[in-house]
Amino acid sequence: MKESVTSEYKLGFYYLSGSIEESDLLIISSELNENGIQFLPLDKNGEVTASIDEFTNVYSFLVNSPLAMSLMSGILVNVAWDSIKIVILRTFKKVKDKKYNKTTSNGVEEKQITYGIEVKINNDHYNFKFNGISSDEAMFEAIDKIIPLLQSKQSLSSESNHLLGSGLPNYIATYDGISKIWVVRETNKIILEKIENSNE
Q1: CA 10 – CA 80 distance, rounded (Å)
Q2: Distance (Å, rounded) from C-alpha 69 to C-alpha 46?
Q3: pLDDT at 159 (0 to 100)
Q4: Are 141 and 110 spatial neighbours (Cβ–Cβ below 8 Å)?
């Protein structure tokens, strides 16, 4: 797909072709370009890794660090963030009930797709997972709470939480629809708990 703008503000999109068509990608690119945001789609067909499903998404929007910092500081106007939210909400509505076939060592398995927003900011990498958020209203509300949460978390960032070289997010966030907050956990701690539970 041809890109019409080059910008330090980039919104990546990892997806599986099928549910998302070329025409969808062109519309998204056009809408984001109008606000100075470069759209970078990447088809993940054949690249989904079973062992890290819990920490990654099948469909994932990726906000790069310059874009995240500008949204947090208010350098980018609200209309830019609004356009991102609309694009994300529309895309998630299209894929949220879909399933996909994954080839594993045991054969082909049908699995529910996972979807979310990943944010890279400075040395931190967050994965906000949206599975389980049912209504459009709740999804829009959850998206709206991401930037304030990141603003509050940045001063608490710690080098010890980084999974250097792993490619995995170092924070996993799930949305509590009752309390209406994102619950953020360190990936290292989740992995450690799994290891401890498997040894019991």
Answers
A1: 12
A2: 32
A3: 46
A4: no
Q: How far apart are CA 177 and CA 197, in angstroms?
A: 27
Pairing of strands 115-121, 59-63: parallel
Integer Cα distance of 108 and 76 in angstroms: 44
In the three-class reduction of DSSP (H, G, I as helix; E, B as strand; rest coil), residue 97 is classed as coil
H/E segment holding residue 43 = strand 38-43
pLDDT above 50 for 160: no
For the chain, what is the radius of gyration of the CA atoms? 17
pTM of the entire structure?
A: 0.85
Neighbours of 55 (CB within 10 A): 19
Residue 102: exposure state from Cβ atoms within 10 A (0-12, 13-18, ≥19): middle
Neighbours of 126 (CB within 10 A): 24
Whole-angstrom distance, CA of residue 188 vs CA of residue 171: 8
